[in-house]
Design a protein that fits this description.
Largest sheet: 5 strands, parallel
Order of helices and strands: EEHHEHEHHE
Number of strands: 5
Oligomer: single chain
Strand content: 15-25%
Shape: globular
Amino acid sequence: MKLRLVLGDQLTRGLSSLRDMAAGDVVLLVEVAEEAGYVPHHKQKIALLFSAMRHFAQDLRDEGVLVDYVRLDDADNSGTFGGEVARAIARHAPETVVVTEAAEWRVLQMMQGWQEAFGLPVEIR
């Protein structure tokens, strides 16, 4: 089973990390304070982004895809991509984490350290 992280600016079914999904794979979408607040954003922009993420997650569920969605107000939300990927790994025990390369350099740098941090393969497409 693969855990497939989709970022808020990657909400498309044609995403490289979603192309070869198999039964049992889990798509992870997370709302994290780290991204909502690292630079000032208008509140309406954040609301629009989270709404789009929630709608995309529901569209995937409607297709029969297993979705793990972490809301910003979830009590155990760690507030970071790395923290939420780690929690999802603990919940689902995947063999591999699959992501599409992040558009932002700082997020890509984070992703490049995950294989060592989590002790399992991380495929950056």
